[in-house]
């Protein structure tokens, strides 16, 4: 399923914006940790399986239901740390330089590959889940990839070709 959620003031252009998309967020940038936390809560409200890892938890199939629930809580809590807020800001900054498309672009790869491009461009680690949250905040079309932890984005192929 494709979901588009606009964080007010989060998109880099109007191109590719989904007029019917729910609009969430503060629209004041991400300079303040409280704003970052608010954005993450709003994104997680629309994507309840989103964690620091991405969608779901690492090796979920090997865990008991209790272990899976505990790992989910820990991975969700990890999204609300100062380091995670910095990752969100780096991803948000890089994504602000990219052109959105109206549909997901599988040729651009998944969030996991794109986050590596962003890491090289922005100079620091970015967790997959924080990259996905930033993409939602920037108004990119986001679709979970094959039920796994990654997402496809509505992002221009140029993001990969030019290295961001």
Short structural summary:
The chain is mostly helical.
Protein described:
By secondary structure, the protein is mostly helical. Helix content is 41%, strand content 7%. The protein has a three-stranded antiparallel beta sheet with strand order 1-4-5, covered by helices on one side. The protein is globular and about 40 Å long. It starts with a strand and ends with a helix.
Write the topology of this structure:
Blueprint: E1 2-3, E2 6-7, E3 23-24, H1 33-46, H2 65-77, H3 82-95, H4 111-122, H5 128-137, E4 142-144, E5 151-153, H6 158-161
Helix pairs in contact: 3-4, 3-5
Spans of at least 5 consecutive residues whose pLDDT stays below 50 are 6-28
Counting DSSP E segments of at least 2 residues, the number of strands comes to 5
Going by helix content, strand content and strand pairing, the class is mainly alpha
Largest sheet: 3 strands, antiparallel
Order of helices and strands: EEEHHHHHEEH
The share of residues in helices is 40-55%
Choose one word for the global shape.
globular
**How far from one another are the termini?**
26 Å
- Tell me what portion of residues adopts beta-strand conformation: 5-15%
Number of helical regions: 6
Q: Oligomeric form of this entry?
A: single chain
Major beta sheet, strand line-up: 1-4-5
Q: What's the rounded overall pLDDT mean?
A: 85
Rg from Cα:
15 Å
Total count of domains: 1
